[in-house]
Fold this protein.
Amino acid sequence: MEHSEDAGVFRLNDGTLLVQTADFITPVVDDPFMYGRIAAANSLSDIYAMGGKAVCCLNLVCYDSCNIEARELRSILMGGLDAVKEAGAVIAGGHTVDDPEMKFGLSVTGIVEEKHLTRNNNAKPGDRLILTKPLGMGILTTANKVDMASEKTMETAARIMGMLNQGAAAAMNETGAHSATDITGFGLIGHALEMARGSGVTFRIRTDAVPFLPEAVDLAGMGLIPAGSYNNRRFAGETVEFEKELSDDRKMIYFDAQTSGGLFISTAPENARTLLEKIRENGAGDAEIIGEVVEREEKFILFS
Ligand code: CO
Ligand code: CO
């Protein structure tokens, strides 16, 4: 817990570890099936951040039984099941409570071979940093609540949020990685900070290499920014230095709270290209090498 690790790990026997996590979220898109799929992908993600594979899941459902129709709830659960099936896992049950505010997610039990475990405190100077999904999901989903995001961009955002990080985890298993975490509520900077601090190193990130969703900067300029992203800036702002002149709207992208964001991976320089190509082949076409790890400097993250 001291390094804010993505999931709990329990040694089952020599070489095999149990990985456990739970997560649920309020709706981020209008379509119930897609919401269910995204919530499940988001819950599964912490297993992948550890280099693991999902095995068994439980549905966690909070819903307003007076106002949500049975067929809508069914669509949400079917969306979740769709993601769980793709993960090669099963749903073994779950729990439902009455709650005026809709929430859905999973508790997930996974396994990982000890040699494939990717903790979030093992980045080494010289490593390259890979991000597997574009940023801006928090801004887009906030804008969508007031109908300010275009349909086309929201479709892209929903597809990316609904995508599992399974392929990226499989690529890490195959090629090798030193450290990994998934980018969720604390944004790229918050999660990178945990990894850099835990590893005792500094991350040098190339702003132009970091992928982000279209419209995100413009919508941030209109103030369509989730409260969580402002909190991230307040919490982590002091640990970051922007060496390059950037607008505040553009900087906000790097603090933006993500839902079902990508994996952020640190890997040896000689592996980086191969790992990136495998991640892309496995479905994360927007993945990029966004920077490198250097010896510890005063600031934990430098944006050049
Ligand atoms: Co996580
Ligand atoms: Co989580």
Notes: The pocket of cobalt (II) ion (ligand 2) is lined by residues 23, 46, 184 (CB under 6 Å).
